[in-house]
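Milestone M4 deliverable, item 7.
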Amino acid sequence: MEKYDEIVLAWKNQKLRSAAELEAALNGYVIQFAYHSGKIENPQITYNDTREIFDHDGVTNYTGDVRTIFEIRNAKDAAHLIFDAFDHREPITTDLLLRLHYELTKNTYDARRWQVGERPGMIKQHDYVTGRYEVGCAPEDAAAELGTLLEEIRQAPLHTNTHVFTAAAYFHARFENIHPFSDGNGRIGRLAMNYFLLLYDHPPVVIHEEDKNLYYQSLEAYDTNEELVPLKLFLKAELVKTWDHPRFLRHAHDAAVR
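Output delivered:
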């Protein structure tokens, strides 16, 4: 059995049905996800600060940029929203994405964005492009393109683990290509992709900050040629890196036999 298949089977054996069960299964991994996802774009984020905020709602002896603290605290709030949405099996909709975006970016927009009318929890009002290939749709097209993506995901065949994983990779690649918000697209794209995986009883993926160059390369492969294979291979490797250790596999096995 391939290691990916072993991990997915172990995850499914836990038979997670409630937010409380999911939170217990993700104990420690939520902090890992928040740390790595945040640090990909903000090098000031540290693991110790992230753990302090998640565990104690604050940090001691901090002298850095206050925006960094808001970003970490927001990641904690967004995680709570994910658990609540999972409890209600809320599908991914534009409304959910707007709420997630608000939680992830509140109190972090700079003065320039605020002055031109951009707000947390709102589709972008102006044109923002990113990367070597200047991806990002026009602001007047963002809502429609996001709606089309969500409809594609709703209609996708999701009968196997491969189907679900492919749909998650496609969602992430296309979401980042659309770039529907003025800020926070990477963080919300990674979080929403993982929520999609959780909805279909699939383990989430920590995209490790030390692998961000490979991550960006795999996204660029989609941006330039609509080639999804590099991102799928990258995400599969990151999933194995996230979950391939005895504690998780043993815990999942114990849950299955209870």
